[in-house]
Specification:
The protein is α+β, with helices and mostly antiparallel strands. The protein contains 17 helices and 18 strands.
Amino acid sequence: MSNSISKSKIIMKTKNDIAWEKIFKDYPVVESVNKDEFFSITSLQINEYREARLMTKFDFHKQLPSIFRENGLAILPTSRGSYVIGRFKIFESIDINTRLEAIGVAKPEGIETIDIEDISSETTALLCANISGILKDFFDEDYILHTIGGRMGSGDFDFYISDLPIEVSKSQIEIDGGFESDNFVYLVEVKNLIHDEFLTRQIYYPFRVWKQKLEERKIDKAVRNIFLTYSDGLFYLREYGFEDVYDPTTIRIIKEAKYSIVKDSLSIDDLKNLVLESEIVKDPDIPFPQSNDLYKTINLCELIYYGDKVMSKEDITEEFGFVHRQAGYYGDSARYLGLLDYVDKKYVLTELGEKTFSKPLKQRQFELAKIILSHEPFNIVMANYLDKGVSPSTEEIKKLIYHCKLYNVGKEGSTFGRRCSTIKSWINWILDRVDV
C-alpha cells in the first residue's frame, strides 16, 4: 500500500480554522451546544486567539471554519461584543433563474455622472437601478425616495432559531439602500458578485430593526426585503419575506425579475456571420470548461479588471464563497477563453482579457460571443441551432462534437456528458443576448 496522500484529501487549514480549533479545545463549545443548545462567547475572548472581526465574518457556509462545519454549527452576533454559537440555519440558497427574460429599461436621459457601461461597485449598481426606474418597476411603485443607508445600531429585539430564543442588543447592521413609498419601506441588499447563497442575517436584522422602528413611531408602513445582484449588464432582483417574523429560518422568496439597461447586442444575422466567419483556434491544453455558469466566469474577470489586481484560488474562494476546487473551474474556464493567465499561482488578465473588459458592455458581450464561437465545439453547436432553430439536447451535442478535441476528456464516460452540458449552457448565454 502506498503511503502517499492524495492531493484531494489534503485539507488546507486557514488561520481562522486554527484559531477556532484552539477555542474549541479551551472552551466547552460542543458540550454546551449539546446540553443547552448554545454557547455564548465575547469578542474579548475571541481576540485572545485572533481578531474577532476576522473570526466571525462568514457570508457563506463554505467560509465557516472546518470545526463549525464538522459539528453543524454557526455563529450569530447578539451585541457589538457578544456572539452565540449553535446549530442554526443561517444561510439561504440562491438559485438565480438565468432563463428569466430580461426586462429592458431605457438609459436615463440627462444623467452624465454615472456610466452605465462601467458599473464597478455595489453603490453604482444601486444608483443605476434607481435612476433607470428598475426599482420602481420591481416595487410596482410610481414614486419612491432613497431615505436609508449605511451602518446603524440594531436597538433591542428578540427572535428564535431552532427553538432557541435569541436576544439582540445594540448589534451593528448595515443597509445598502432603503427606499420609501406611500405604503412601504424597501430595504435593499446589493451584491456585485454572483453567489449561490447568502447570509440570512443580512436581510433579517435590518428587517426587524425597521419593522420595530415603524411600529414604535406608529407609522403604518410595511417593510419589504429586496436582494439585488448585478453582473454583466444584468440586474437580478428578488423579494423575500418571513412567514414568521420571529423566525429567520422561515424566509421565503416572493418574486424575482431580471432587468437590462443595455439592449440586446446581437441580431440573428450578426450571430450567423460570427459562426461563419470565426477563425477556429486550436483548443488549448487547458482543462475544457467544467463550469456551466458562464456568468460567474465573467464575474471573476470583472472582479479582476475593476479591482486592478491578480487573484489566487484562495482569493476567489474568499470572494465568491466557492470551495477551492470551484475556484479552479471558473479560473480555468477564463483561461480556456484566453481571458486569464495563471502565473505564480495567481490569475491575471491577459492582453485579450484587458482589451475585452475595457470595451463598453454591448461591445464586450459581442467580443465574448466571438471568442467562444472561435472554439470548434461551441461553433458547431451554434451552427446546428441556427440551422434547426432549436437548442440541441446534451445527447445531440455529444454526437455533434464527438470528433472534437476536448483536453483530457474521454468520450465514453460521464465526464463527456457534463462537458456537453457546459457547451449547451454557454450557447444559451449567447442566445440570451440575441434579439430573436
